Amino acid sequence: MKIKLNDTFKHEFSFTQEDIVKFAEVTGDNNPIHLDPKYAAETMFKVPIMHGMLGASLFSKVFGTLFPGKGTIYLKQSLSFLKPMYVNTSYEAVFTVKELNEEKHRAVVETVIMEKASQAVCTTGEATIMNTDRI
Amino acid sequence: MKIKLNDTFKHEFSFTQEDIVKFAEVTGDNNPIHLDPKYAAETMFKVPIMHGMLGASLFSKVFGTLFPGKGTIYLKQSLSFLKPMYVNTSYEAVFTVKELNEEKHRAVVETVIMEKASQAVCTTGEATIMNTDRI
Lengths: 135, 135
What we know:
The structure is a homodimer.
Chain A: E1 8-13, H1 17-27, H2 32-35, H3 37-41, H4 52-65, E2 73-81, E3 91-101, E4 106-115, E5 121-130
Antiparallel strand pairs in A: 1-3, 2-5, 3-4, 4-5
């Protein structure tokens, strides 16, 4: 199915501390703010926070597998990490199609992550994607 | 050590197909373009390509662990995925400090990933980071 201008898509997710450890292993990003509760206790965050890029990888997941799905090529993504994200917390990624160029099969999509309970906005951004079948 | 305006930092890296599988598992991004050689063979890429966000996670790794290192908070990142990246290939991430605000402990850093052999630019972007000790 083709996506249309102003289409929206929502996707709920949460990560565990095991996911954080695995993400740190594969990316090499072992910043103690994500892994070490003692270190985190002495920062303004008080407890370990998720890698911002792990949250942002949800955008990649959704574009490549759900909305618009298979065949999507990622061209651009801007990211503003506004609030820290935590493990074992429900988040919602919300996508809104802002611009569509059917000739070039490209779309500009607003990407937002909110904490589900409070609807507090954690991460905002804008993606440019291409999909020759679905845009 | 504090970072200064125009400072540059380089970091070499490469990923294996095992890393791609692990990244797909933890993020849920199992787009076949990254995982399935048969599917990839029928696309313009011909072989599986890396997740762009896995390349971008290198920026997070370097900021949080190497340059400027411990204590870095990620505020913003823009990403343009210009060329696909492949497994078992040497890449170089290059960082250049473009703006510095010592009062706010913030810096704007240009972030580029190049294929090491050809120096072809694969990913470009700009990061805004904060570090109260090192900026």
